[in-house]
Amino acid sequence: MDSTPSPSSSSAFELVSRALGRYIPQGGASAVDPRGDRATRQRVPDPPAAGQQEQILGAVNLDSDLLITRCNLDAPVFAGLEADAGKPFVDLLPPGDVPTVTRRLRQVAESGEAHVARIQRLRRCDGSELVVSMSILPAASPEEGLTVSVIAMARRLHLYAAETAIGTSLDIGETAQSLAESLLAWGDVAAVDLDFAVWTGEGVTGKAQGRIHLRRAALVPDRVWPEGYMTPGDDLPGDASRLLAQAVLRDDAPQTIVIPDRQAVERVFGSPRVVRALVPGGRSAAVACIPLVLDGAPPVVLGVAEVWRRSDCPFHDSELFDLQELVARTAHHVDLARQHQREHTQVLALQRRLLPRSGGDTIEIASVYQPATPDSAGVGGDWVNSFPLPDGRTALVVGDVVGHGLGAAATMGQLSMEARALLSAGLAPDQVLEHLDETVTLLDDAESGLAAGYSALGSTCCIALYDPVGHHVTLSSAGHLPPILVTPDGHAGAPSIRPHPGLGAEFALREPFDVYTIGVPPGSVLALYTDGLVEDPALSIDEGIDRLADVVSTIHPWDVLQQTARDVVSALAPAPQRDDVTLLLARMIGYRKGDTATWRLPARSDAPAHARERVAELLKQWGTRDDTRDKTLLLVSELVTNAVRFATGPVTVRLIRSGHVLLCEVGDTGNGRPRLRRGDLLDNGGRGLSIVHRLTSRWGVRWTDNGKVVWAEVAR
What we know:
This protein is α+β, with helices and mostly antiparallel strands. The chain contains 16 helices and 25 strands. Helix content is 31%, strand content 25%.
């Protein structure tokens, strides 16, 4: 009696076989009588045309001894699996999996409960393995044995793994490279060409047909290519860009196209130059072009992915479906990388705009800004700035705004510009930090609409003002890491600064901003930095600061400061890094002793005359021109007169020869701010400031602990 069930049988094996679009094999596999007698092999009719698609589902029937009784593994994907009738099923398994799978088979046979979707490896006769999803199904009656259904998982797993790998980087070049490497599974050569606007991070919109400008972003495998062939970083010729755009934008809708052979490639591309640029070699002649498309109305084409293979291996529909699925799933990763690239470029431009340009006659400045790697969370809010103040001092400012991206960059720019404006207006470092503290608090107020989902609370800042006459630095810090001072004898260390909670702390936690004055002899070097330079997971922050001190202690007076700054960053924070690195080195030079003079006069009516007499003698020694000497004497007379008239206590007069100007300073103990105003012809009030305004190139006021200083510049 033939043991082969009829086609109407409702066993698990028949149900799976019907899903395959086939009946029980009668020629492709053996049928075995349940009693153990081998049956004659019979031929199965060829499958209908509807079943010509690629098949990934198969079935194997087992008896109670786990021997194969019949199977349906005729699909090409199962080629090499020797599932002949009468063989133990475990012969298809790697030796290490035999005990576990055998136990599962026995459990299903005894309990009647199915075991589904087990990821399993099967051995081919050539030693290779096939990854499948295996389910063990019980029969209606124990004597019918078990049915094992298998679904070839390799391609689906590759699609899943490829999509997962492509989304791991925010760098647009790495994203394109990951996509090309994944596409290589379907061909001999894979390339990704992106619209130039996508590559540079610019905005992309629907473009007129033929106007796309492509740049090769990725190419695999990595090898020497023929002369003229486009490799990563090259712009495709205009004809090539136009032809690819026309190919994938047929009827104004992005579509995948396949050019089957070399003759068709040459006919479509036409120009020999275009063929050399796009065809990777003589053998790889067939190509599938898949557009990278963002869904929308209209859809936006980001670029084109190309998979090349030999013309004797044509692309099947199932392969094209897989290619389109992979490219469609990963196009948004390319767009995310584009957006990150744009934001990274914008923030980096702002960062570099804030970097100090140069020092002056009294100070030498060098700075290094090393942004975080492009595939990190984004460029942070680290910033440094240095600028001369109108009174001859130099401001050195470093800050670290919380967070990354455009929100941090916007806050960074606002705080930097506000600090510069307030320092130029003569405010002391602690007063400037008070204003910045209030600004950060206001920016975090949701009702103001300025925060836009970003909080800058906890940002830090350190301000140092260098006085080239007194050879000292006045600094104040809001939660920032302390600067490192290197004295001319080579000693390096951080000044003792009391910790501070930073900008924008809660009202109950706010602390006053302390002011510190540090002596800096000529030749000293001050290092300001952000935490990215000294943070190391293997070290504490104090150990990181000590490492920085050890490195900068080797700076010699004859070293080129800019190269020294680069060497320090390279030694402590080699790229790539996850946070911005910022370093500012300032070498204090100061004024020579003969270029400054200071007099202290009592606040009496004869003070202006004494001041004119001493200034005139000094200007004669300096060899100043007559017109400059006359202006300076009149200026000193007016400023000292105002100080005697409106203030009490002694008056200090200081004259500084700096470059092409003379800087005149008059200090007193008053706290009133001189203001220039327009008066009547007969009004004598305010005429002194009007004279000062006309005689000088600029003038202003700065505040001190015991009063104020009015300064003014006169061209020499």
